Amino acid sequence: MADLDDIREGKDFGLDRPADLQGFFLKGAANHDWGLKNRLSRIFNPKTGRTVMLAFDHGYFQGPATGLERIDLSILPLCDYADVLMCTRGVLRATVPPSNTKPVALRCSGGNSILSELSNETIAVDIEDAIRLGVCAMAAQVYIGAEFEHKSITNVVKLIDTGTRYGIPTLAVTGVGKDMARDAKYFGLATRIAAELGAHYVKTYFVEEGFEKVAAGCPVPLVIAGGKKLPERDALEMAYKAIDQGAAGVDMGRNIFQSDAPVAMIQAVAKVVHDLEKPDQAYQYYLDLKAAQG
Ligand code: 5RP
């Protein structure tokens, strides 16, 4: 019987003992079916176990945000350097050439806007269309603690159920509304709930204090969103710390496409994610590429 009596905060995250991968390279994925594992292996590089997802789905509630006014001009030149493209079906069909062979993580929730309550989302894509588009993952927000928490959880559960039927993983995105906490306690709660419900991997935000416990307490891979635009070196340092503390990659948007040199920045982020390049070296790499690209 679930109750709220005597809820004790987790203490032993076994930070000195990595999770047992049970024969598959990704945490928590050993017991999935072949198709699901195959799609996860296209999202996460089997050599490093990590991924650089390029997120440009922001328009689904923000409209033509800075850097995404013309996706054909700003985003398509970056695609070769990403492991995965994360976008809506509208942009995929309208802008991304079908000859693209990068795996797609499809934004499948919507129904809100920056003018309304963010947590009030619905599933905005039918599974048939996701299959028709050949996507490698479906994504929806979970808004833990928000006004429409239950509805957002229901959305993700439906995606997990339908996606699992067809071997398509679900990425649960921990949404943060205007007044929601952004600390390890909150993200530890939200990411764990998403994984317990069956999400195949989870997107969260990096926090300076306690991220290691957020990652250790989540039994499936975590990727971090970049969040608001930071100076390039700071964004690279954030990515480094997240990977070093247990994240399996990034799902980064603004810190790449709003950079002064987006093509250089995405390559520097990939250096951090896949080669664990230290922030100073990765930043120098960014500067060198930026200079070379003119
Ligand atoms: C929008 C999203 C974005 O994909 C996510 O926030 C990543 O983008 P950014 O790095 O710009 O935060 O989920 O709701």
Question: Could you tell me the strand content as a percent range?
Answer: 5-15%
Helicity level, as a percent range?
25-40%
Number of strands: 10
The set of bound ligands, ions and cofactors reads: ribulose-5-phosphate
What's the number of helices? 12
What is the 3D shape? globular
The residue-averaged pLDDT reads: 95
Rounded to the nearest angstrom, the distance between the terminal CA atoms is 63 Å
Summarize the structure.
This protein is α/β, with parallel strands linked by helices.
What topology does this entry show?
Elements: H1 34-43, E1 51-55, H2 59-62, H3 71-74, E2 84-87, H4 89-95, E3 104-107, E4 109-110, E5 122-123, H5 127-132, E6 137-142, H6 149-165, E7 170-174, H7 184-196, E8 201-204, H8 211-216, E9 222-225, H9 232-244, E10 249-252, H10 254-257, H11 262-275, H12 279-293
Parallel strand pairs: 1-2, 1-10, 2-3, 3-6, 6-7, 7-8, 8-9, 9-10
Antiparallel strand pairs: 4-5
Helix pairs in contact: 9-11, 9-12, 11-12
The structure holds ribulose-5-phosphate.
